[in-house]
Amino acid sequence: MSTSTTTISTALLTALGITADQLKIAPDGEPRPQPRLLPCQTYTPRGWLQRHGYDARQAANFDVLTYWMHKRRDGEMNQGLCLIGNPGVGKSLGLDLATRYMGSVRRLDAMEIGSRYAENQDKALSIGRGSWGSGWHMDLVIDDLGDEPEVGFLNGVKRNYMSDLIRLRHHLWSDPAMWGDRGPCLTHFTTNHSLKALTERYGAATLSRLREMCRVEFLTGPDRRLDP
Question: Are strands 187-191 and 157-159 parallel, antiparallel or unpaired?
Fold first, then answer.
C-alpha cells in the first residue's frame, strides 16, 4: 500500500512539473542522499570560530582568521596562512578551524615530517606532492615550522629537507598545470619563530617562496594554556 501511494504521489507531482531532484527522492520513491554541506556553506566565519570555542578576547587574532576565511570562501584568496606568534596564542587551533571551514585538509607536525624523512626520504617528500593516496591536489597544514631537526641525509648528502618541501609546495602552488578544478593547492604553517630566524634556518630564497604563497600574520596575546 505504501509503495503504490508513493508511486502515485511521485507520478502526480512529476506531472505537475516537480522533478525527482526537487522532491529529493529517487525515481523509485526512496530518499535521495543529500551531499554534506561544507562549514562555509552553513556558517559565517565568525559563527564557525565561535561554535568551536575560539577565544575572541584577542580581537586582532579573530579578525586575522575571519578576513582570510571570508576571502577564501568568496574565491578572492589564493594564498595559504602562515601564523607566527608565541606559544599558546591560538595559532594551531585557529589555523585548524580556518582551514576546515573550507573543507578537508591534511595536517602534519614538522617533527613528524622529520621522523618520516629519517625513515624514508622519498616518502617524506611525497607529502609535498600530495601523494599517499590523496592525489596531486591537496591543501597541507604544517604545524610548528622550525622545530624539526635542521638537516637530514639524502644519498649520503646533508639536506635541509623542510626547505626542499617548501620549494616543492611553492612549485605546486605557482604552476596552474598542477591546480586541478579547485585552483592552487595551498600550504599553511604555524611557527613560534620569527621571520628572521626562519630566514637564517631555511635561506632567503626559500623564505621568499613561503611569503609569496602564504599570507603571513602575527598572532598576539597571553598563553591560552596558562590563562584559559
Answer: unpaired
